[in-house]
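Treating backbone geometry as a discrete language has practical consequences that deserve illustration. Part of our work consisted of pairing the sequence of a single chain with a tokenised description of its backbone. What the numbers capture is local backbone geometry rather than side-chain detail. For completeness, the protein is quoted in full, as a sequence line and a line of structure tokens:
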Amino acid sequence: MNTADVPHRSSADSLAARQAELVAALVAGGPPPPGFAPAPLAAARAALLRKRAGEVARYWPLLAAGLGPNWPATFLDWATDRPTLGGLRDGWELARVLRARHALPALGADELAVREAAFRYDGHQPPRRRRLPAVGRAGTAVALQLAGRVRLLRPAR
């Protein structure tokens, strides 16, 4: 190894570390990195969270509609300290949290039941389409997947 490469490598490592701190502050609730003004950083973070809420609402329109005017606040409260997993998985995680709190609206329960009948999702790996017959339940909603088709048997009330 050439000794001339060592200072370059440490500066690249330092830059990568600062970039990681900035990303953590913007999307994962990390503290503001040294040298960044907190107010503009908070504004950028809020804008990114709103954009993320819109992406999740595109994947989970019934969940967002079921929460109505509470959608932005509910999503922001849940997402503030969580890095994104993508719109589909973020919505799935939020729907499961709301179900556990008994706060999942009926439309969201219908949507979650259909997704859980059609896909296998363990919270760690990306969702995979189910091949065998499956039932999804959320609240009073029940969905059945058979031969690749999903039917909502009993919608939530």
Summary: Residues 11-154 form one domain. The chain is about 55% helix and 15% strand.
